[in-house]
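haha ok so turns out i had the wrong file open the whole time. this is the CORRECT one, sorry everyone. sequence first:
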Amino acid sequence: MKRSLIVAGELEDVLGLRGVLDSVGLEYAEAFVPDRLLGERAVETLGLKKIYAVERFDEAQSEALAGALRDLVTGADTLLVLAPSRKMYRELFARVGQSLASACVNDCTNISLEEGKLVVERPTLGGGYVESLEVKRFPAFLTFQPMGRSPRRRDATSIEVVKLGAVTSGRRTPKLLSVEVAERGGAELSRAKVVVSVGRGFKKREDLRLAEELARLLGAELACSRPISSDLGWMPEDRHVGLSGRWISPQLYIAIGISGQVQHTIGVRGSKIIVAVNSDPSAPIHREADYSVTHDLYQFIPALIKALRERSPSRG
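then structure:
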């Protein structure tokens, strides 16, 4: 039986990628992950046959991880190798895919496997279109945008664990002196049920308190468009949703002061309900929205906060 291999450094990504495999009925799966994920109850319920555990996974050089991954795939009957669509994994898969003359496709959003044909979908031309590609060389290395996928529920089972230790490339590499983990704001966006997102319609950084208060009242996570994080630095990069940021699929997405160019909306089209608050009736975000509010956000958001406080005094 052909196997699939999940490569990820975070539990949320492992769960999402297992959900991808479940969506096409691929049961036989293994994982190449940090040793800190061993013993996680959620991992034990994924039906994984084997886990290759790496020490200091997050500190490993890309070249070293590539060598270890190539050794795992070479000579094995592997169909798919999946990872999150992030810079680290795109580089890793490019290295291994090139050395094995295998297919490598990034930013996938969907996958189908019918009559022996593997077809993947991904955005193209700035996210305005979706292209379908038939993959003919295996193993296929695919990076996926997070779309809130959940794995099928299974009973906990014992998993064979292969401890690989700390992987090295065998070459001289820069010496790691220290690791400073960037502070993350709130929970993982890809798992949030409600998201309040802010854009350039906010005039000052201090004004984001309006969105923060709204998010608190709704029990939501706070996100932003690219200019807020990348250009102005008002919010961390991990809060940016869009083509080059996080792809999310909440039950409710509230876009405040966001114009809604395709580079942004491609990352939120998986949302069940989109509410747009933008005083410009011709803003592209209104074409994507289920509900549109064309009032000044500085008038509408305080009024909405007041109404929510009156409705739920305990949250006020």
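DSSP finds nine helices and 15 strands in the chain.
again sry for the mixup
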